[in-house]
Design a protein that fits this description.
By secondary structure, this protein is an alpha+beta fold. The protein folds into 2 domains: 6-125 and 277-289, Rossmann fold, CATH 3.40.50.10330; 132-269, Tumour Suppressor Smad4. It has helices spanning 19-30, 77-90, 113-121, 194-197, 282-289; strands spanning 6-12, 34-41, 44-47, 52-54, 70-75, 94-98, 108-109, 126-138, 145-149, 152-157, 164-170, 173-180, 182-186, 209-215, 225-228, 233-237, 245-249, 255-258, 262-276. It has a 7-stranded mixed β-sheet with strand order 4-3-2-1-5-6-7. A 6-stranded antiparallel β-sheet has the order 9-8-19-16-11-12, with helices on one face. Strands 15-14-13-10-17-18 form a 6-stranded antiparallel β-sheet, with no helix packed on it. Strand 8 and strand 9 form a beta hairpin. Helix 1 packs parallel to helix 3 (113-121). The radius of gyration is 20 Å and the shape is globular. The termini are far apart.
Length: 296
C-alpha cells in the first residue's frame, strides 16, 4: 500500500500543546515526513506554521496544503467531520485519533496512536470508502447553497419551540407530509449519530442506503424510512415554517443555513476514504463504543 510523505495534522486549537500531538509530530519528522499542523478555531481554520487562515470552501487551491497526501485528525467525531471537508476537497484519505468521547469515526485510541500511526504511514492499513451526500438548499429566486456531507443533513425547528411542517418527496413522489421537530437524512456513516438517537437502526457503513428519520413527530405512524442510495430526495418546507427552520449539515460546527425552502439531496459521486489499522473491525468498534454485552 502507498506510503505517506506529506501529512496534515488537523486538530482543535485547544489541543495544540497536547503531549500526544507533539510526540506524533516529532516521530513523523524523524521519519522524513513533512507535517502541516492545521487548527480549527471558532469560525475559521488556520495553518499554524505560517499563521495563515485557510478558505474552507477552497482547500484544493491553497499552496500550503494542496500537495498533502493524508489528513490525520486528533480530536473527536465532530472535528473529524470538519476535517473530512478538507480530505474530500484535496482528494486524499483521512485517519482519526480519538481525543473526544465515544469516537465512532476516530477509532485509533490515543494510547496506541504512535505505533499505529507509524504503521499506517508506512503503508500498513485498510481503506474504508464511505458514501457522501450532495446537498442543495435554496428557494424561489434565492441563491442556492451546495454542500457535500458525510454524516447527515438535519432540517429542524429554530428560534421557536414549535414544530415544522415539511413535504417529503422521493424520486418526485410525495411520500409524506410531516409535522415534527425535524427530519434527519443520513448516510450509513451517520446512522450512529443523531439518527441513532431518534430511533433509526444502525446501518453497516458499506450499505447502499440512505435513512430518513423524524425528530419527535406529531403522529406516531411517522417512522424512520430506509431508501436506496440511488433515490433522490426533495424536502419542501411549508411557508408557515420557513422562518423558524434551519438546515444543519454534518453538525452545528460545520454549516447552518437559515430559512431554507427546498432541500435536494442525493448520493454524491465523491467518496471519503478513511484509513484504519489492519486489525480494524467495524462491529468490534460498535461493541466497544456502545458497551454491548456488558452488565446493565
Amino acid at each position: 500500500m502507498k506510503k505517506f510523505k506529506n501529512v496534515i495534522i488537523f486538530t482543535h486549537h485547544r489541543y495544540l500543546s497536547n503531549v500526544n500531538i507533539k510526540k506524533i509530530t516529532s516521530s513523523l519528522k524523524r521519519s522524513k515526513v513533512n507535517v502541516n499542523l492545521i487548527a480549527q478555531y471558532n469560525g475559521y481554520v488556520k495553518a499554524e506554521s505560517s499563521d495563515t487562515i485557510l478558505e474552507e470552501d477552497n482547500y484544493s487551491q491553497n499552496k500550503i496544503i494542496r500537495n498533502s497526501d493524508l489528513v490525520l485528525v486528533f480530536g473527536g467525531d465532530g472535528l473529524f467531520l470538519s476535517a473530512s471537508k478538507m480530505s474530500v476537497d484535496l482528494g486524499i484519505p483521512i485517519l482519526g485519533i480519538n481525543h473526544g468521547k465515544i469516537g465512532f469515526l476516530v477509532d485509533i485510541d490515543k494510547k496506541n496512536a504512535l505505533k499505529q500511526v507509524k504503521d499506517i504511514i508506512n503503508g500498513n492499513y485498510l481503506v474504508d470508502s464511505r458514501m457522501l451526500l450532495d446537498v442543495e438548499l435554496g428557494g424561489n429566486g434565492t441563491k442556492k447553497n451546495k454542500f457535500v456531507c458525510l454524516n447527515d443533513v438535519v432540517i429542524h425547528n429554530y428560534g421557536l419551540l414549535k414544530m415544522i411542517q415539511v413535504k417529503i418527496f422521493v424520486n418526485n413522489y410525495l411520500i409524506n407530509i410531516q409535522r415534527s421537530d425535524g427530519l434527519i437524512i443520513a448516510t450509513p456513516t451517520g446512522s450512529t449519530a443523531y439518527s441513532m438517537s431518534n430511533g433509526c437502526p444502525i446501518v453497516s457503513p458499506d450499505s447502499k442506503v440512505i435513512s430518513l428519520t423524524p425528530v419527535s413527530p406529531h403522529t406516531y405512524s411517522h417512522r424512520p424510512l430506509i431508501i436506496n442510495d440511488t433515490d433522490k430526495i426533495k424536502i419542501e418546507i411549508d411557508s408557515s415554517s420557513v422562518m423558524h427552520t434551519m438546515a444543519t449539515i454534518d453538525g452545528s460546527n460545520n454549516k447552518n443555513i437559515l430559512n431554507p425552502e427546498i432541500v435536494n439531496i442525493k448520493k454524491s459521486k465523491k467518496t471519503l476514504k478513511i484509513l484504519h489499522p489492519k486489525e480494524y473491525n467495524y462491529f468490534q468498534i460498535l461493541n466497544e463504543k456502545l458497551k454491548w454485552g456488558g452488565r446493565a
